[in-house]
Design brief:
The chain has 294 residues and is α+β, with helices and mostly antiparallel strands. Helix content is 21%, strand content 40%. It has two domains: 2-112, Yope Regulator, Chain: A (2-Layer Sandwich); 131-292, 3-Layer(aba) Sandwich (Protein Transport Mog1p, Chain A). The protein contains five helices and 16 strands.
């Protein structure tokens, strides 16, 4: 464990008792405790200030890899456990620590957000960058990403190995594009799509938490209504359906999320909730155009 933490560029202290060792590491301004036991790990961190138990209940309803709780000092904490009784690898342990550190960043944002209440109009979008969750020494170093070239109507080159095929008669690119961000409008006017590509690798297990945090920064009541993880030709995709109210308009967002060593890609379609039946097939056709070459 010492070697793994050093390899992740952590500064740490340790305290051993019996067959367990507690490592204390700093993640931004937070102190994370890693309890290393014979057959597993327990990670936890606590946050100073008041903590609304209702927010803790909300977190536990919406998130599955961590749990929120009050400690004996009344502080809000987040924790996670994993058992390695069936064996483990260094990569598995490092990925578990990375995933927890990402959730610490998400939980911090969650606690700082306004409590659940009446929706307020906002010009922000529930679809936003994910790289904010990958900060500090635990973020994986990313090599320069090869530039994507060769986009033509009906084919968007997102990265060197990632592309999106779409029907150019149905979907029209919106100008101007900026690096890593591509917007589309459906020919009928009521459907939209956004493609975001970033040179940061979010842990696959944290994609849902980060996407939901982005949505809840606009609408505290935003929620994931459907989720699925699928493998296509050895490539893992996360599929999420999120509902959120933007301003006073109920919206639905259907997205595919792809994570690789050098990038995170979001392909998200969206429309007003009342118009979803009209666009369901077009949305799935657009999302299924996401292609990754190995």
């Amino acid at each position: 464990m010492r070697s793994l933490l050093r390899g992740m560029a952590f500064d740490f202290t340790e305290d051993s008792t019996g067959d367990s060792t507690a490592f204390a590491v700093h993640v931004e301004q937070h102190l994370v405790t890693i309890l290393n036991q014979t057959k597993g790990l327990s990670l936890s961190t606590c946050f100073e200030g008041s903590f609304d138990p209702m927010k803790g209940n909300q977190w536990n309803r919406e998130h599955f890899s961590t749990r929120a709780y009050l400690d004996d000092k009344g502080r809000g904490c987040v924790g996670s456990d994993v058992s390695f009784g069936g064996g483990s690898t260094n990569q598995m342990i490092q990925e578990f620590v990375r995933l927890f550190c990402t959730d610490v960043a998400v939980f911090d944002r969650f606690l700082a957000s306004s409590p659940a209440g009446p929706d307020k109009p906002s010009a922000s979008s529930p679809i936003a960058a994910m790289a904010w969750s990958q900060i500090g020494p635990y973020a994986k170093p990313m090599p320069p990403r090869p530039a994507a070239t060769g986009s033509v109507p009906g084919l968007l080159k997102i990265a060197s190995k990632v592309s999106l095929k779409y029907d150019p008669d149905q979907w029209k690119p919106e100008a101007p594009h900026v690096e890593g961000r591509f917007a589309f409008s459906h020919a009928s006017g009521g459907g939209h799509a956004l493609v975001l590509s970033e040179s940061a690798s979010v842990p696959l297990g944290s994609v849902e938490d980060v996407a939901l945090a982005n949505a809840q920064s606009v609408d505290p009541h935003a929620r994931v209504v459907a989720r699925n993880r699928s493998w296509v030709k050895g490539v893992a995709f996360v599929f999420l359906k999120i509902e959120a109210t933007v301003g006073t308009t109920p919206m639905v967002y259907w997205g595919y999320y792809y994570v690789d060593e050098g990038c995170t890609v979001q392909v998200v379609t969206y429309t007003e909730k009342s118009q979803l039946p009209e666009y369901e097939r077009s949305f799935m056709d657009f999302l299924n155009g996401l292609t990754v070459s190995r």
